[in-house]
Write a structure and sequence with these properties.
The chain has about 160 residues and is mostly helical. The chain is built from seven helices and three strands, in the order H-E-E-H-H-H-H-H-H-E. It starts with 5 loop residues before the first helix and ends with a strand. Bound molecules: heme C.
Length: about 160
């Protein structure tokens, strides 16, 4: 135990640095670049971009149904629509795609799915339309915040 293995230490430090760098790239930074309009562009494969955009259109459809349900006082429809775009809908995103998304994007995305679950619960439990509408307003803040920060680009377009 007296002799320290300098090579072993060297290799360990290099490996650790490698792991930390990969963790940073895949968990925190994502596959991003600057874009001309000032937003951060996330570079995805065309199929991955399609998947994220399809999720987005599901968000907007959900918001439409929820709004209509609130106007008509149909809380079952509100609860159903919100549930559909809740956390259950977030599952099934491939790890390879996850790795390309910045941490802030993932956090905001998950928070949005969770908020729709909470909205669904409120609509089911209390059915207080005013409260649900207030939750909807909060959620729309997530939409606009993320849209003003990020855009998606196809890797093949470059
Ligand atoms: C975590 C980030 C994030 C959140 C949260 C988010 N979006 Fe998006 N959304 C994006 C990005 C990025 C794009 C692509 C924008 C671009 O490339 O210019 C997008 C695109 C869209 C599109 C266009 C879809 C298409 O087919 O082109 C719609 C509609 C949309 N979002 C609706 C919503 C709604 C409604 C919400 C909130 C309920 C929401 N989004 C929340 C990031 C987000």
């Amino acid at each position: 135990m007296k002799k320290t293995c300098k090579l072993c230490w060297g290799v360990s430090v290099l490996l650790l640095a490698g792991i930390l760098a990969m963790g940073y790239m895949f968990v925190i930074r994502g596959n991003v670049t600057e874009s001309a309009d000032g937003r951060t562009a996330i570079i995805l494969q065309p199929g991955e971009r399609d998947l994220v955009l399809a999720e987005m259109r599901a968000f907007l459809e959900g918001v439409q149904t929820i709004t209509e349900g609130l106007v008509e006082g149909d809380m079952n429809s509100v609860a159903d629509a919100a549930k559909k775009i809740g956390m259950a809908n977030a599952a099934g995103v491939p790890v390879t795609l996850m790795a390309k998304l910045p941490l802030e994007f993932k956090t905001l995305g998950m928070a949005t799915h969770k908020a729709f679950d909470a909205l669904s619960l409120e609509a089911t439990d209390m059915g207080d339309g005013k409260k649900v509408l207030a939750q909807m307003a909060e959620i729309l803040n997530n939409c606009t915040t993320c849209h003003s920060t990020y855009r998606l680009e196809s890797a093949s377009k470059k």
